[in-house]
Amino acid sequence: MDYKNTNDAVTRRIRAMVDRVNMLKENDLYFYNQPISELRGGARVLVNGHDMGMYASYSYLGLVGHPRINAAAKAAVDKYATGTHGVRTLAGSLKLHDELEATISEFKNTEAAITYTSGYVTNLTVVSTLMGRGDWVISDKLNHASIVDGCMMSGAEFRRFRHNDMEELEKRLQQAPSDVSKLVVADSVFSMDGDVIDFPRVVELCKKYNAWLMIDEAHSLGVLGKTGRGIEEHFGMEDSIDIKMGTLSKTIPSVGGYVAGKKEIITYLRHASRAYIFSAALPPAQAAAANEAFKVILDEPWRIQKLQVNTDQFINGIKKRGFDTLLTSTAIVPIICGNDERAFLMTREAQHHDVFALPVVSPAVPDGLARLRATVTAAHEPEEIEYAMNVFEKAGKEIGIIS
Prior knowledge:
Helix content: 40-55%
Number of domains: 2
CATH architecture of the largest domain: 3-Layer(aba) Sandwich
Largest sheet: 7 strands, mixed
Number of strands: 14
Strand order of the largest sheet: 4-10-9-8-7-5-6
CATH topology of the largest domain: Aspartate Aminotransferase, domain 2
Number of helices: 15
Distance between the termini: 54 Å
CATH class of the largest domain: Alpha Beta
Shape: globular
Order of helices and strands: HEEEHHHEHEHEHEHEHEEHHHHEHEEEH
Strand content: 15-25%
């Protein structure tokens, strides 16, 4: 088939995306996939020869480059080399993997844990392994794409409820037949808006309607709770989640995902989830880095306290300057720009003034709610945050987002 002479649906979709990317590049509005040449102290990066403040990182506690974590990764390479020889079920399991899973289960106060090679894969395989035809899975409309894909892949009856709308969640639970298995799944902190799920009410409804509860803590680990253990600690409601999912690539400076829970659930997933059975194990360096990172969080509680101080400074400062930040209360701070073009223009101005922030536009967010999704970390200093906010303010006024 001659691609150039084809006008089928696939070709049209490809051309539309390529045309959009080329248009953005021609107007100096394309800032995705930029290679970072150097990490400088957690809150700064070198990009295209410019020393820039980093406001797009998920390293909420500033653990990227931590000497203890780096040392653990290097020691793992020296002992186990760079690969794992295969899948966990066969030749790929190392003592490191068992140690990491034990550390996670202790940190999350559960009986056991299982790790996967990415957070996306974790949601995809866990939801689709636990749920099947005839079951019901009920999901917040703003849940991460990996949750949505897992729900669809499961073959279960897939229903959504309006974002954080507990009345509609109850309606969905009431609609499910009483004799079917039900799973309610939600992010703890929502990745585009930065707000927190109404956890006490979700738990109450799951108990009332005998539904399993799965919470994705990708953006709450190290962020919520006095010791960074997440949403249960934040609300003082331990042992309220059946399936505690999280990632190893945000607060934890590694790669992968995990689920923590009852021993029986973990045993089932270890022998039934395809992503565990058919994917190579986490590389030794990444497993060791993740394992050490959990320990650093507990040994350095000041990081959680500093993150909260920085978060408060950033949210309050951005709002005082006139920006809409929706309902965020966490380190994810959406700076609403309006249409896509304004978000791209804001990004250009920010990066031209050495503030590394990135736009989120349609279809990832609804039309009219394009934004800079700015993040603050424990590595930022107050004067750095102040400088970034001043850059955003100046750009926002020039573009017409604020007056």
